[in-house]
Amino acid sequence: MKNTAGILLKSTFVLFLLAALSVSCDVASGGGGAEIETLEIRYIICVSGGDDPYGGGGPYVANAMLGEIRVFAGSTAPPGWAFCEGNLLTVGANAALFAVLGTTYGGDGVVTFAIPDLRGKVVIHPSP
User: Can you give the pTM of this predicted structure?
Assistant: First the structure.
């Protein structure tokens, strides 16, 4: 049996290291000194598992499981996903996700519950 979880964690960690670097370069061969901004790594959580609004398998949407957390380098979360920044969601509008998370990350459990706050956290691969 292949250990795909270990491979996924290793590739995610490498992606994090590559994306977190601040890169500056010349925009054209003629120079100009313009810089590319630092790419910010954020975490997203699937809030509507299994939905694929792109209809063709967007990389962060296809085959997603409800409550799944992924590393993301965009400024806007894809449809069906939310940034892991401790946001409060309503139980009524997100009953399935509430069934998965409960009040583990906060909220009153009656009207609201929270998604994880992973700001400032780093993906680390455990030693074998």
Answer: 0.63
115-128: per-residue pLDDT in tens?
Answer: 999 998 888 888 87
Q: Structural domain tally of the chain?
A: 2
As to burial, measured by CB atoms within 10 angstroms (0-12 exposed, 13-18 middle, 19+ buried), residue 61 is buried
In sequence order, the 6+-apart residues with CB closer than 8 A to the CB of 72 are 41, 42, 43, 44, 60, 78, 81, 83
By residue range, what is the domain housing residue 34?
1-39
Burial of 47 (0-12, 13-18, 19+ CB in 10 A): buried
Q: Is residue 127 part of a domain?
A: no
Co-location of 50 and 109 in the same domain = yes
